[in-house]
Design goal:
Strand order of the largest sheet: 1-2-3
Helix content: 40-55%
Number of strands: 5
Number of helices: 14
Largest sheet: 3 strands, parallel
Order of helices and strands: EHEHHEHHHHHEHEHHHHH
Shape: globular
Distance between the termini: 20 Å
Strand content: 5-15%
Length: about 325
């Protein structure tokens, strides 16, 4: 088992937004300098909601292209496609035989789906719920454990996923620990202000709130989107509270400290309007994202290149997964 293995997965169910970039992509890229890193495209997880083959194919490539455009080095980080590592699904079957159904009944995603049926007055509380959603935590546990991951980034509202993985690993270790034991992964949780980007309405940026700014918006659309961020009616010449302004909060994530300090002083002193602030925000965001947008568009225009990166990374990931499965099979008595 390699020490300090950092693993994260992304579900290909749509394009990224600026919140994903600040809260997930940048920290994950930084982790590559500290850990042995494995990043995967969770395409089988996406099957619970994506039913169009072309849409899924595009989203898989888009997810990989986003990571690469933002600076992921496939020589340093193994980036792979979940569906190309069949050992993950073999481990899922093994773990399913050890996992109590009661544990799955308490999973947040499953309970939330049933609650929606209750709210809608649907008598069959399991209506519209497939086994993919119900078994989601087991597949996620297999994703983590098959790579013998020691560190997994999770949001504060997603800690149950990692708790379930620890529980499921514990069931296996208790029964088969004399032959082999999984490492119990630790959660890497960063819910500091530096990792949380506000959406255009001030809440945490999220597609579910429809308050997000897509990561690779064309330059003209990015400018229009930023210009439409709501602000109050304080006159240009009047002093303003920077910290109560969404554009200023966003600016702090993209502009250098000197610019942020200068803008703060100008807003507090009066004489700087919200429109000028939004212009500053656009320039800062575009300066950081523009080159990445260009790189992303180049990659998406060459899908075979993206596929080659995923195929090579998946082959490397399979070596790690195969070694784990060999130990698991020997421990349970099938090898």
């Amino acid at each position: 088992m390699a020490a300090n293995t950092y693993l994260t997965g992304i579900k290909p169910t749509g394009d990224f937004h600026l919140g994903n970039y600040v809260g997930a992509i940048k920290p994950a890229l930084a982790a590559a300098h500290e850990y042995d890193t494995y990043y995967f495209i969770a395409d089988y997880h996406a099957l619970n909601t994506v039913t169009d083959a072309e849409e899924l194919r595009h989203s898989i490539r888009s997810g990989a292209a986003t990571w690469l455009a933002c600076g992921l080095d496939p020589e340093r980080t193994i980036v792979y496609q979940q569906s190309r590592v069949p050992e993950t699904f073999e481990l899922t079957s093994i773990l399913s035989a050890l996992t109590p159904k009661g544990l799955m009944n308490r999973a947040h995603a499953y309970k939330a789906a049933r609650d929606r049926n209750v709210a809608a007055g649907v008598t069959d509380l399991d209506a519209g719920i497939n086994m993919g959603l119900f078994n989601y935590p087991i597949l996620m546990a297999a994703d983590i454990l098959v790579m013998e991951s020691t560190h997994v980034p999770v949001g504060r509202d997603q800690t149950q996923h990692l708790e379930y993985t620890a529980d499921i690993a514990g069931y296996f270790n208790h029964r088969f620990g004399e032959g082999y034991s999984f490492p119990i992964p630790k959660g890497v949780i960063d819910d500091s202000e530096a990792s949380i980007l506000p959406g255009v309405d001030g809440r945490k940026m999220s597609k579910s709130y429809d308050n997000h700014i897509p990561l690779f918006l064309p330059e003209n659309k990015l400018k229009k989107t930023i210009r439409r961020i709501p602000t109050d009616s304080t006159p240009v010449e009047d002093p303003k509270d920077p910290d109560g302004s969404v554009p200023f909060q966003l600016l702090q994530h993209f502009a250098d400290a000197e610019t942020v300090d200068d803008v703060r002083k100008r807003l507090e002193a009066g004489g700087m309007g919200w429109g000028e602030l939004k212009n500053e925000l656009f320039e800062a965001v575009n300066a950081e994202i523009g080159p990445k947008r260009e790189r992303y568009e180049e990659l998406m225009a060459d899908p075979e290149r993206i596929d080659a990166v995923l195929i090579e990374g998946s082959e490397r990931a399979r070596k790690r997964a195969r070694a784990t499965i060999d130990k698991v099979r020997a421990a349970i008595g099938v090898a």
